[in-house]
């Protein structure tokens, strides 16, 4: 049997040429063995009908086995020549022939160095994608945190609005200085709230782009 893997032929046929030849060889061996059994059976019947025949079935079996060995030896020699012809002229794809699915390589040839460069570039792109995904996850977490902070700030502003309304209703004059401080604090909180809202809007736009 040939040791050449003949991978290109296997790609085309769906099986290796060596496997095909091995199956042919086994089929011929099985057929030869079956023929010898049939011949032996016919000889036994013929000899059984001859009066005074002294040839025993064991002697016929020995002759059959000897003849089978002779046939197998000659068949192996013939099959070796047939295998060589089949692998070279029938089941062989010439070196200059390309399969249809490989013709794109002829149009766009590339060297090992170019292929390695493409592999490196692909690996870099995969790393960038993983980094972008991690950054997107971090931005989402920050956006959720800002939403929670915004909700708390809105509650605080509502408390200040309530205090302002109470002061107006009761005319608390001694509360002016405290109220001025509270108003300044409320102003600062409103500024912080606006900043949070602006950042939240930017985060939403970035999320849509991703």
Automatic annotation (TrEMBL):
GO terms for cellular component: MIS12/MIND type complex; nucleus. It holds the Pfam family Mis12. Keywords: Cell cycle, Cell division, Centromere, Chromosome, Coiled coil, Kinetochore, Mitosis. This is Protein MIS12 homolog. GO terms for biological process: cell division; kinetochore assembly; mitotic sister chromatid segregation. Its main location: nucleus. It is found in: Chromosome, Centromere, Kinetochore. Residues 108-206 form a coiled coil. Belongs to the mis12 family. The gene is Mis12. InterPro entries: Centromere_Mis12. Transmembrane segments: none annotated.
């Amino acid at each position: 049997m040939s040791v050449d893997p003949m991978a290109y032929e296997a790609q085309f046929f769906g099986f290796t040429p060596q496997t095909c030849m091995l199956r042919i060889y086994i089929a011929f061996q099985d057929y030869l063995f079956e023929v010898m059994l049939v011949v032996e059976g016919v000889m036994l019947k013929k000899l059984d009908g001859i009066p005074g025949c002294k040839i025993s079935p064991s002697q016929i079996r020995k002759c059959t086995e000897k003849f089978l060995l002779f046939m197998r030896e000659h068949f192996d020699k013939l099959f070796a020549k047939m295998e060589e012809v089949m692998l070279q002229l029938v089941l062989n794809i010439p070196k200059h022939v390309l399969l249809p699915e490989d013709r794109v390589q002829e149009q766009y040839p590339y060297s090992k160095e170019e292929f390695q460069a493409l592999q490196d570039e692909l690996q870099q792109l995969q790393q960038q994608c993983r980094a972008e995904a991690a950054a997107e996850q971090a931005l989402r977490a920050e956006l959720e945190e800002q939403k929670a902070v915004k909700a708390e700030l809105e509650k605080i502003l509502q408390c200040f609005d309530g205090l302002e309304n109470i002061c107006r209703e009761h005319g608390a004059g001694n509360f002016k200085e405290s109220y001025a401080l509270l108003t300044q604090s409320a102003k600062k909180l409103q500024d912080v709230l606006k900043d949070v809202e602006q950042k939240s809007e930017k985060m939403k736009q970035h999320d849509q782009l991703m």
